[in-house]
Amino acid sequence: MKIVIIIVALLALIGGGGFAAVTFAPSMVPVPVRTLLGIEVSQEEMEAAAKPSVTTLIDIEPITIPIFENGTVDRFLVMHVLLEVEPGEKQAYVNRQLPRLIDMFITYTHALAALDVAPGIQDRQFLKERLLAKIDETIGKGYVVNLLFSDLFERPLS
């Protein structure tokens, strides 16, 4: 009898915890479970859930970008980027497009620094989101899954 009461109590706690998670923190519940439960799922969440299960990293040599202020070089931004891609054809395509991507990283980072857009190049998440959007514009959507910074720091000129 005690075992039955313990099992019922555990099931009630699990059910209550699941209900609380779905009600108060729906982003914690995986997309397929929310879809089964009939909870509305945004398009962005569906795309995020559709990410590939197997990926590989393409290591790009560190890029040193001069940051100008008042017409002279004030400091250098050193950016070491890893691109997460699906292995196979997409990886080969991204490897062929690396010169274009490196050029885009340099050009776009110069533009962000020159425009002095808030939060700017100091905020890694902002820079990552902007570079991912530019990667999709440059080589096409769906080739790069994620962008990771191995190193990102500013070095003064002197």
TrEMBL record:
Keywords: Cell inner membrane, Cell membrane, Chemotaxis, Flagellar rotation, Membrane, Transmembrane, Transmembrane helix
Subcellular location: Cell inner membrane; Cell membrane
Pfam families linked: FliL
Keyword Methyltransferase on entry: no
Entry GO terms, CC: bacterial-type flagellum basal body; plasma membrane
Membrane topology qualifier: Single-pass membrane protein
A single GO BP: bacterial-type flagellum-dependent cell motility
Cell membrane keyword on record: yes
InterPro entries, per database record: FliL (IPR005503)
The protein's role, per its UniProt record: Controls the rotational direction of flagella during chemotaxis.
Similarity comment text for this entry: Belongs to the FliL family.
Protein's UniProt name: Flagellar protein FliL
Protein's organism: Thalassobaculum fulvum
